[in-house]
Amino acid sequence: MNSLYDKRIGLIAGNGRFPYIFAQEAKREGYSVVAVAHRDETLAEIENVVDELTWVYVGQLGKIIRTFHRARVTQAVMAGGIRKVKLFGNFRPDLRGASFLARLKSRDDDALLRGIANELEKDGITVLESTLCVPQIITTVGVLTRQAPSDRHWEDIRFGIHVAKEIGRLGIGQTVVVKNGMVIAVEAVEGTDEAIKRGGSLARSGCVVIKVSKPKQDLRFDVPAVGVETIKILRQAGAVALALEAGKTLLLEKDALLAEADAGGIAVVGVAA
After folding, report:
1. Distance of CA 105 to CAs 18, 100, 101, 102, 112, Å?
2. Maximum Cα–Cα distance for the chain, whole Å?
3. Is 135 helix (H, G, I), strand (E, B) or coil?
4. What strands, in cross-sheet order, belong to the sheet with 208-211?
5. Is 36 in contact with 69 (CB distance < 8 Å)?
6. Strand partners, 12
7. Which of 159-162's residues contact partners 24+ apart within 8 Å by CB, and which partners?
8. What pLDDT does 88 receive?
9. Distance from C-alpha of 100 to C-alpha of 27, rounded to nearest angstrom
10. pLDDT exceeds 90 at position 91
11. How far is it, in rounded angstroms, from Cα 77 to Cα 64?
12. Least confident of 100-114, 119-133, 147-161
């Protein structure tokens, strides 16, 4: 590859803060970031931290590939998710996207994202791990806040890890809300934040939230992540602890997130799962 393009990287940006944070860190490491952002999903301010930006609708796989080819991008990352409900609404596949979906045998997250990665690689675009450039925000083992869970809450966490791993294996979700040894809510198509809200309304107070990676998680995409907004929702839900799988979960805006948790008396812990 021409050395002029050795530090050029493509970014397929989904929702949330992660694409923005990834772009910031990649720029700090000297990358030129060519981004493809999804309409009604990706934060508009992504344009402030990338070198080139193209907007697409969910499903426009051909446009993504053409954009990277024009920019001579040969390596890319996928950062941030796409809400599954988009598959029922604002979904406008182009010919390449429609052809890809017609061949796909399963539409669970792993099959869909792995299939997209394979399509990109057929066209000479290698998909790298989305944790590239952001090792400092990967959850580590231990209590990360001033407050630690009580013994009873640790019991709920250990139970919740088992349940969350199982729903991940089934392709349902990655987050569960637990109180007193009972599963109060399970994440499905609505996403983590809505599952926490529902769990909090049912538990009323004192629940714990557990978020893990799926078994055999592919770190090239769909890495579980939480941010400051997640902590605010935990506070509203009356949650007392948030447990995250160490090594495979991202803490977006880490310092602000932990400060928000401390202010709300919420324990944040990284656990081996």
Report:
1. 29, 10, 8, 8, 9
2. 59
3. helix
4. 142-143, 267-271, 241-245, 208-211, 175-179, 182-186
5. no
6. 36, 78
7. 160/208, 160/209, 160/210, 160/243, 161/210, 161/212, 161/243, 161/245, 161/271, 161/273
8. 47
9. 32
10. no
11. 12
12. 100-114
- What domains does the chain contain, in order, with CATH numbers? 3-127 (3.40.50.20), 135-271 (3.40.140.80)
Measure the CA angle with vertex 17, ends 178 and 183; round to 5°.
10
List, edge to edge, every strand of the sheet that includes 126-127: 52-56, 32-38, 8-13, 75-79, 126-127
User: In terms of Cα–Cα distance, which of 63, 58, 105 is closest to 82?
Assistant: 58
The number of helices, as runs of H, and strands, as runs of E, in the chain is 8, 13
Under DSSP, is residue 178 helix (H, G, I), strand (E, B) or coil?
strand
CA-to-CA distance for 225 and 79, rounded, in angstroms?
10
Using alpha carbons only, give the angle 142, 21, 88 rounded to the nearest 5 degrees: 100
| 5 has pLDDT over 70 | no
d(CA 6, CA 2): 7
Write the CB contacts of 89 (distance below 8 Å, at least 6 apart in sequence).
Answer: none
**118: part of which helix (H) or strand (E)?**
helix 109-122
Give the model confidence (pLDDT) of 157-171 as tens digits: 999 999 999 999 988
Residues 264 and 235 sit within 8 Å (Cβ to Cβ): yes
Do the beta carbons of residue 207 and residue 178 sit within 8 Å? yes
Cβ atoms of 129 and 18 closer than 8 Å: no
Pull the structure tokens for residue 187. 């994440």
Contact indicator for 117, 127 with CB cutoff of 8 Å: yes
CA pair distance 155, 181, nearest whole angstrom? 7
CA distance 111 to 122: 16
- Tokens 């992660």 belong to 18
Residue 152 CA, chain-centre distance (Å), reads 29
